[in-house]
Amino acid sequence: MHSTIYRHAGMETCLFLRQSTQLTLNDQQIPQMTTLQPRNRIVSAKPAISILLTASLVLFTGIASGNTQERKPLRTLTASGRGIVTIPTTLSQIRLAIESSGKTPTTAQQEAARKSTRVMNYLKTQPVDKLQTTGINLNPTYTYPSGGSPQISGYTASNSISFRVTTDRAGAILDAAVKNGATRIDGVSFVASEQAISIAQIQALKQATQDAQRQADAVLEALNLKRKEVIGIQINSTSSPTPIPISSQRMSVKMADAQPTTPVVGGEQQVEAAVTLDIGY
Question: Which contacts (CB < 8 Å, 24+ apart) does range 147-155 have?
C-alpha cells in the first residue's frame, strides 16, 4: 500500500493506494480494481469561524434594522395660544415748549433761553425722570401786506423739553412749569413702569402657553387621544404697551389760563404675548 499527500486550500489530502492480489479466472490473471481511499485532515478552523461570526453579525444587524423601521413616527398637533395682561399706567410722559418772540433773532433766542433755563431748573428740583431737551427752533415771522411781498416782522424762538413723572404728580408739575415760563404743552401720554411691564410680559407668556395647551387638550379629547410631551415651542411675540396720549392735538397754554391744579388721570395698558406649541400624541 502506497500513500500520496496533496495540499490544497489549507487542506491536506492523503490518498492510500491499496493493491490487492491478483485473481485467476480461466487461467487468466485479472488484476483487482485499485481502490483510492481519500482521507482529509483539517489544517486550520479559523476560516470556518470567521464565516460563522460574519453570518451572525449580518443576521443581528438585519433584525435591529427591522425593529427600527417598525417604530411608528410621533404624531404632532400644533396649537397657538394668546395671553393678555392689563396693567395700570402709573407714569406720565410730558412734552413742553417755551416760546419767545423778538424783533431780532438774538433777542428772541435769548429770551427763550432765559425762560427755558428757569423751567429746567424747576424740573430738576422735582422727582422727574428722563429730563431732556427735544428741540430748539428759531423761525422768522412774516407780515403779508396787501398787494406786496411777504416781509419779515420778527422772529420766534422755541425750546422743547420732555420728562417723565408719576401720574399723581403730573398736574401740579404742569402748572408749576407754566408759571416758570412754559408756554405750550405739546402732549401728555401715559405708560406703565418698566418693572410692571416686565412682570406683565412674563404673565402673558404663561397665559399664552396655558391657552395653547387647553386648545390642544380640547381637540385631542374630542378624538379620544392623549397628549404626550411637547416637542417644539415658539414664542411668536411679546408686545410692549404703547403710551396712551391724552390728545393728538397740540395745546397752547398761557400763564393766565393755568388752573390751580390741573387734574391728570391715567388709564390702563395691555401687554400681549403669543406662543405656539408642537405637542406629540
Answer: 154/101, 154/102, 154/103, 154/104, 154/108, 155/101, 155/102, 155/103, 155/104, 155/105, 155/107, 155/108, 155/109
**Domain range annotation of the chain:** 1-48, 76-86+197-239+275-280, 88-193+242-267
Q: pTM higher than 0.70 for the full model? A: no
Residue 180's nearest CA partner among 232, 118, 231 is 118
Neighbour tally for 29: CB within 10 Å: 8
CA distances from 224 to 45, 70, 150 (A): 61, 24, 83
pLDDT in tens, 167-214: 999 999 999 999 999 999 999 999 999 999 999 999 999 999 999 999
Q: What is the pLDDT of residues 79-108, one digit of tens each?
A: 999 999 999 999 999 999 999 999 999 999
